[in-house]
Write a structure and sequence with these properties.
15 strands, alpha/beta, 7 helices, eight-stranded mixed β-sheet, Metallo-beta-lactamase, Chain A
Length: 293
């Protein structure tokens, strides 16, 4: 066991807590047809594997400093880019930005630098590899701002980030072998609203690595993972072994493959959430579900 279950594994009823979930399309929010979701936590889809985690007070973005398309992966729609540039809507009042690893579809330094320099409060925490690329675009800010932190936690010694209303545990998860072996990839466990949300970045489908990180010994309410973890093979085995009782959100889906992936998932994994469009939201709770939902 590499880090302690944040909710306490010795509690009666551990792993059997009742989790409810529902999805709200972005169009309803943009058109003003509804008020924000009321839940213990909400996850908001940004670009690609980017996500905003919020309990209505604390706001954490993971892998969400992505604006332009890269390779087969999408960027922000044209009507959302101004929100990013103006730090409004889903990008307003962000307490913490986390980046799993250096690849351009997970963090775009030019845009991340602009965002962080406009904000007065947002903290930025990531690896030496990510921060090194960031310094190429905004060296003075990255080397002088007290809001920037570089971390490189080894296995068994996770890094803890404390925020008012939230706690984040950052730990290594391998990005793969051979040409990917040297890439620093972080898993990021967010405790917020009495719940836990795990974003695994671009972790390799290696069950031994998940066990090495201690993920078979802690309670996780919601896991956010690449859609590839739900294809036949070691990825789906990891989902079953480590996250059988967790709510699941599949991300990192190329726009050109979205319809095919959704059709497959609806048949094979109908309870796994796919947030199809940018700003789509998923709400999760342990308290009684709001009336009418």
């Amino acid at each position: 066991m590499q880090f302690k279950d944040p909710m306490g594994t010795d509690r009666p009823g551990f792993r059997t807590r009742m989790l409810w979930q529902y999805v709200l399309p972005a169009a309803l929010l943009l058109w003003g047809f509804t008020s924000p979701l009321q839940a213990d936590i909400t996850l908001t889809q940004l670009a690609n594997a980017g996500i905003l985690v919020s309990d209505g007070e604390t706001r954490i973005i993971i892998d969400g400093m992505v604006v332009e398309p890269y390779a087969v992966y999408g960027g922000l729609p044209s009507d959302v880019i101004p929100m990013f540039e103006q730090l409004s809507g889903p990008f307003a009042d962000i307490d913490l930005v986390l980046v799993s690893h250096r690849h351009h579809e997970h963090n775009q330094p030019r845009y991340a630098c602009r965002f962080l320099q406009q904000s007065l409060v947002t903290r930025f925490v990531s690896s030496p590899q990510v921060n090194g690329l960031m310094r190429e675009k905004c060296r003075t800010f990255m080397t002088s701002s007290p809001r920037v932190q570089e971390i490189n936690p080894p296995y068994g010694e996770p890094h803890i980030i404390e925020l008012p209303g939230a706690r984040v545990t950052v730990f290594p998860l391998s990005h793969g072998a051979r040409k990917y072996a040297g890439i620093q990839n972080f898993g990021q466990l967010v405790e917020m609203g009495g719940m836990t949300v795990l974003h695994i970045g671009d972790a390799a489908m290696n069950p031994e690595d998940f066990a090495r990180a201690g993920l078979d010994q802690i309670k996780i309410d919601v896991v956010v993972a690449s859609f590839r973890f739900f294809q036949p093979g070691p990825g789906s085995e990891i989902m079953t072994r480590f996250f059988s009782n967790s709510g699941k959100v599949a991300m990192h889906i190329p726009p050109g493959e979205m319809d095919e992936v959704r059709a497959y998932m609806s048949e094979q994994f109908p309870r796994v959430i796919i947030l199809k469009d940018t700003l789509d939201q998923a709400a999760f709770g342990l308290t009684p579900q709001p009336a009418g939902k």
